[in-house]
């Protein structure tokens, strides 16, 4: 539990000098906050944390610095060593993928650059107290990702169960479908009648619960199971 009787120790990681200075000035002007350090990269913030005489309570972490995901990578490193440090991401991106990647590192909050100074400070104070202040858009994004993962888990179990029950002939046909071969091409490559291949594909559709062979291909690719069908 973090003490309310001392200043909130903050570090900032931001690669744009003018923004880094701005964040430092905003934090430094608050009587209940103390700026410990300001880093220009993900690697530098990791080093500063390890060299610090006292650990920060909060790190304001830009996501895109020396690389597109430098802040996310730094967050994983820092949180792995010091899980008590609370990381608040700052970014100009609002894409679901970026939000979910960032929050998946154990960060506690996420703010969009350009927000009002008081909004940013409010996020710092609430993060320090352990109060979630994620806005509704971010909460909805995380819930969408949770729902997607739950559905994917169910689909993967279903798919793996079907894959393990395929005959060698069926696996060969699926591998050819993954190579975008047409039914006629598959018949020629396997030296069998066209009607035979159609019957075999119909059996595959029933096993996978699909209506078209393209749906089987999409399912396997979506679940990254193509390696099961390499010839």
Automatic annotation (TrEMBL):
Keywords: DNA-binding, Phosphoprotein, Transcription, Transcription regulation. It comes from the Bacteria. Residues 9-128 form the Response regulatory domain. One of its GO terms (molecular function) is DNA binding. InterPro entries: CheY-like_superfamily (IPR011006), NreC/VraR/RcsB-like_REC (IPR058245), Sig_transdc_resp-reg_C-effctor (IPR016032), Sig_transdc_resp-reg_receiver (IPR001789), Tscrpt_reg_LuxR_C (IPR000792), WalR-like (IPR039420). The keyword Transcription regulation applies. The keyword Transcription applies. GO terms for biological process: phosphorelay signal transduction system; regulation of DNA-templated transcription. The modification 4-aspartylphosphate is found at residue 62. Residues 159-224 form the HTH luxR-type domain. It holds the Pfam family Response_reg. SUPFAM superfamilies: C-terminal effector domain of the bipartite response regulators, CheY-like. Gene3D superfamilies: 3.40.50.2300. May play the central regulatory role in sporulation. It may be an element of the effector pathway responsible for the activation of sporulation genes in response to nutritional stress. Spo0A may act in concert with spo0H (a sigma factor) to control the expression of some genes that are critical to the sporulation process. This is Stage 0 sporulation protein A homolog. It comes from Shuttleworthella satelles DSM 14600.
């Amino acid at each position: 539990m973090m003490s309310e009787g001392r200043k909130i120790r903050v570090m900032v990681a931001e690669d744009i000098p003018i923004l880094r200075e701005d964040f430092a000035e905003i934090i430094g002007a608050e009587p209940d906050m103390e700026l410990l350090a300001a880093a220009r990269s993900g690697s530098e913030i990791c080093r500063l944390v390890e060299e610090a005489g006292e650990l920060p309570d909060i790190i304001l972490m830009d996501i895109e610095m020396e690389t597109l995901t430098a802040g996310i990578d730094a967050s994983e490193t820092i949180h792995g060593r010091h899980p008590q440090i609370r990381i608040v991401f700052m970014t100009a991106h609002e894409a679901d993928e970026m939000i979910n990647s960032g929050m998946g590192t154990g960060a506690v909050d996420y703010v969009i650059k350009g927000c009002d100074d008081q909004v940013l400070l409010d996020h710092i104070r609430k993060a320090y107290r352990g109060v979630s202040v994620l806005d509704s858009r971010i909460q909805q994004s995380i819930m969408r990702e949770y729902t997607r993962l739950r559905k994917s888990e169910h689909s993967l179990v279903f798919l793996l169960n079907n894959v393990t029950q395929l005959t060698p002939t069926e696996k060969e046909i699926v591998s050819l479908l993954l190579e975008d071969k047409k039914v006629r091409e598959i018949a020629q490559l396997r030296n069998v009648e066209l009607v035979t291949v159609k019957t075999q594909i119909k059996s595959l559709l029933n096993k996978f619960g699909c209506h078209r062979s393209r749906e089987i291909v999409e399912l396997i690719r979506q679940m990254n199971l193509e390696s099961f069908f390499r010839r």
